[in-house]
């Protein structure tokens, strides 16, 4: 690699960085690392060129082949005028081309906006607008959604999108081949470790997901910490079943951790036992990360006895609360060590240790990966509560951003004046620093790890001609933890017969809302219960018996 000496830091408007004194400390203490994503990958390519990097279906890429694809695709993107600082919305399922494509953007210093394959017109249009994206990269269809049509619509209507790249359903096809046909660029430093590397989506509480600007040095630093506590080595064979844009799949320690270690990544487009058990057997998978409903599906699957799963050493579970009963079954029934993980796309992530006692790994959601991750547990007035008492979690540290992208007003409500992020979860912390998640204060539904902002769905429901008022809450569910329920007050003169579950869901779908945000239950009511302050009592709606 040849360094370009006169590279100035990337300036992106609407990004709030860490104060210099914190940045200097994190760099000095090795919590931020002096590497870009691209440099991290090419360090590994140089070290283990012939080792297998990625397996997806019939595709198998060694590190050398992965590196070459990255540089060809980077040349292809550059020929289209995409360069440093340009935002590119990437909406892909877990296909073989995912890593080469996003790393091609990283090589150029472009800034991918990593959308979920499950997103629809409504979400994608908002990301494109907010980020002023120059390009949109997707597959022609996913789960019945016409993404080629969406790409054509965006190309026609967006003032900023100059390019779309539409792969076939399996993530290949002529548009990918055309990019790959370019002579590879030479890998060199085209961005700085302190630059924003990509924009990650938040779970969202108000409106739609916010975009989270993570830098190369900060994000890679948090991945390195997670790799250490996650025990990732060159011998790891990591199965990725969660959507790759999720921070849990990406850096906790995620596929970035695997690339950093020179490990092998096996991609699956879903985590169901019939898809993944054969993959675990065939590739001798050693570890994976799951959300609780998937862990339950694995534990309860009748297919378990039919496949050799003995290669599994670590099963990481997070994204939503994993009950202690189910947690205890991972070791007993899958023969793997459970590593619980708690965290958020905004930054902090915690893990239980791999050699911890049974009680800890089944009842705690982990502790931060470094002492520099500051944890405050506070009451409603931001006063610290005694240790072991439940309270609101506030955090700041090397992994946690100081603000979202281009939402200064929202930032003022979710970051304290001294830079702590108000996570919105209720936790308690034991004397060793381990956190147990005991509840949630933010208005968000956690549907088996997928996050729904009720306000976003309510806003769409209010556009329904038969709806006077709408309130969306999470109601308890044995498998998913929570399901989404919409309470609807019909509009006078409207047609209430349209307000069935099917009618409501298809109305929201037509408005371009992602499938996982559609309500699972609908109840038509005359009024909403109210709190003493006269607000809608969501608590009463959550606990109402049918
Ligand atoms: P995301 O940014 O999508 O990763 O969502 C972060 C949120 O997911 C956290 O603020 C929690 O509300 C929830 N969450 C993540 N991991 C866990 C866990 N292990 N237990 C309980 N809640 C969790």
Can you walk me through this structure?
It is a single chain. This protein is α/β, with parallel strands linked by helices. It has 3 domains: 36-50 and 58-192, 3-Layer(aba) Sandwich (Rossmann fold); 237-441, ANL, N-terminal domain (Rossmann fold); 446-543, GMP Synthetase, Chain A, domain 3. The protein contains 18 helices and 26 strands. Strands 2-1-12-11-13-14-15-16-17 form a 9-stranded mixed beta sheet, with helices on both faces. Strands 4-3-5-8 form a 4-stranded parallel beta sheet, sandwiched between helices. The chain has a 4-stranded antiparallel beta sheet with strand order 18-19-20-21, with no helix packed on it. It is globular. The chain starts with 19 loop residues before the first helix and ends with a helix. The model has no long low-confidence stretch (mean pLDDT 96). The chain binds adenosine monophosphate. The site of adenosine monophosphate has 20 residues, from strand 15, strand 20 and strand 21.
């Amino acid at each position: 690699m040849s360094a370009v000496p006169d590279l100035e830091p990337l300036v992106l408007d609407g990004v709030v960085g860490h104060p210099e004194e914190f940045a200097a400390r994190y760099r000095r203490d090795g919590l931020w690392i002096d590497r870009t994503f691209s440099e991290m990958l090419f360090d590994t390519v140089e070290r283990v060129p012939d080792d297998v990097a990625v397996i997806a279906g019939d595709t198998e890429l060694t590190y050398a082949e992965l590196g070459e694809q990255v540089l060809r695709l980077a040349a292809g993107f550059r020929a289209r005028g995409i360069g440093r600082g340009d935002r590119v919305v990437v909406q892909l399922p877990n296909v073989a081309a995912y890593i080469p494509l996003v790393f091609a953007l990283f090589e150029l210093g472009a800034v991918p906006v990593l959308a979920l394959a499950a997103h629809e017109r409504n979400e994608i249009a908002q990301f494109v607008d907010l980020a002023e994206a120059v390009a949109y990269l997707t597959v022609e269809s996913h789960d019945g959604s016409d993404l080629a049509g969406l790409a054509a619509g965006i190309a026609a209507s967006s003032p900023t999108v100059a390019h779309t790249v539409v792969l076939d359903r399996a993530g290949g096809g002529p548009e990918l081949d055309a990019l790959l046909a370019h002579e590879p660029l030479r890998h060199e430093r085209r961005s700085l470790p302190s630059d924003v590397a990509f924009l990650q989506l938040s779970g969202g509480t108000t409106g739609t997901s916010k975009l989270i600007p993570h830098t190369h040095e900060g994000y890679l630093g948090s991945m390195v910490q997670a790799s250490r506590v996650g025990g990732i080595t060159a011998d790891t064979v990591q199965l990725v079943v969660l959507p790759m844009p999720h921070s849990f799949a990406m850096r906790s320690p995620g596929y970035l951790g695997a690339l950093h270690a020179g490990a092998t990544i096996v991609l699956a487009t879903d985590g169901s036992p019939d898809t993944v058990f054969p993959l675990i057997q065939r590739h001798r998978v050693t570890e994976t990360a799951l959300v609780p409903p998937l862990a339950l599906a694995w534990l309860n699957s009748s297919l378990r006895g039919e496949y050799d799963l003995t290669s599994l050493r670590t099963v990481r579970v997070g994204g939503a609360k994993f009950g202690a009963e189910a947690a205890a079954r991972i070791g007993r029934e899958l023969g793997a060590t459970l590593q619980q993980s708690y965290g958020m796309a905004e930054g902090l992530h915690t893990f239980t240790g791999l050699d911890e006692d049974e009680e800890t790994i089944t009842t705690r959601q982990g502790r931060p990966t470094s002492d520099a991750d500051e944890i405050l547990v506070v009451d409603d007035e931001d006063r610290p509560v005694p240790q072991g008492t439940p309270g609101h979690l506030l955090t700041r540290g090397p992994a946690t951003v100081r603000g979202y992208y281009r939402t200064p007003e929202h930032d003022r409500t979710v970051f304290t004046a001294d830079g702590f992020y108000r996570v919105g979860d209720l936790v308690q912390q034991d004397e060793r620093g381990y956190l147990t998640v005991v509840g949630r204060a933010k208005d968000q539904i956690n549907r088996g790890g997928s996050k729904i902002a009720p306000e976003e769905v309510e806003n769409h429901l209010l556009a329904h001609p038969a709806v006077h008022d709408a309130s969306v809450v999470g109601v308890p569910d044995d498998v998913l933890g929570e399901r989404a329920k919409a309470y609807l007050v019909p509009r006078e003169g409207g047609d209430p017969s349209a307000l069935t579950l099917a009618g409501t869901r298809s109305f929201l779908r037509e408005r371009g809302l992602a499938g996982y945000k559609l309500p699972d239950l609908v109840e038509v009511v005359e009024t909403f219960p109210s709190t003493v302050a006269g607000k809608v009592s969501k608590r009463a709606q959550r606990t109402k018996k049918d």
